[in-house]
Amino acid sequence: MTFSGIVIKRNWKFQLLWYAALLYFSYLMVLITIQYVPVDFDVAFLRIKQDEIKLLHYQIAFFTHVYTSIFVLLLGMFQFSDYVRRRYSSLHRSAGKLYIALILLLAGPSGLIMGYYANGGIPGRISFCLLAVLWMVFTYKAYMYARKKDWKKHKNYMYRSYALTLSAISLRLFKWLIVSVFALPPMDTYVIVSWLGWVFNLLIAEYIIYKAATDSQISKS
């Protein structure tokens, strides 16, 4: 899942389809999250992380990440809506502050710890650690530019931040697609989607930023 629905800002039907798809996939993420409520060390993903889950710091990181990331996903969903920004500006600001705080204080650091223990060997670990670091850096920059009231750069870094937030969804979509089409070994598939799941999203975000800048230049000329 990427930002393609945001590109065509004035096409409300496309936007409606975008939000409907995002809500649906967010619902699927909620179903994944509630598997870990109450805390259970022998369910779903943790069944292949039995060595890591014995470590107290991994336990704290894993459940912190799982329990906070779903709220990050939902909070970021409507941050790019012109309607919400215009009609409910206080809600936009409050949701944005909570989104940023959750990433910088909880979801990002815990994701970095999990990335250190990621499956897929060195390539997988590098990918998930880099994802966590970039997620925090982009989010922090979005916050700092908001403080400076540089709304253009704030919005651009929020695009990048939310692109990485959506990697939780896109990683699973790419995994399903690769497994359905190719007969690759499971760990090879995992390494591929560990990179593809967030790099692809980030490329889409950069295209959106580039397209917006190009359109702005054309309108001024």
How many whole angstroms does the radius of gyration measure? 18 Å
- Quaternary: single chain
**Record field, number of beta strands:** 0
Coarse structural class: mainly alpha
The biggest sheet, with number of strands, parallel, antiparallel or mixed sense and barrel status, is: none
Number of domains: 1
Spans of 5+ residues with little confidence (pLDDT < 50)?
1-9
Compute the number of helices: 9
Task: For the record, give the distance between the C-alpha atoms at the N and C termini, rounded to a whole number.
Answer: 34 Å
Q: Name the helix and strand elements from N-terminus to C-terminus, one letter apiece.
A: HHHHHHHHH
Integer average pLDDT: 88
Overall morphology: globular
Which percent band covers the strand fraction? under 5%
Helix share bin: over 70%
What attributes does this structure have?
single chain; 221 residues; mainly alpha; 78% helix; disordered N terminus
Q: Can you give a write-up of this model?
A:
With 221 residues, the chain is mostly helical. It has one domain (4-220). It has 9 helices and no strands. Helix 2 (12-33) packs antiparallel against helix 3 (56-76), helix 6 packs parallel to helix 9 and helix 8 (167-181) crosses helix 9. The radius of gyration is 18 Å and the shape is globular. The protein starts with a helix and ends with a helix. Residues 1-9 have low confidence and may be disordered.
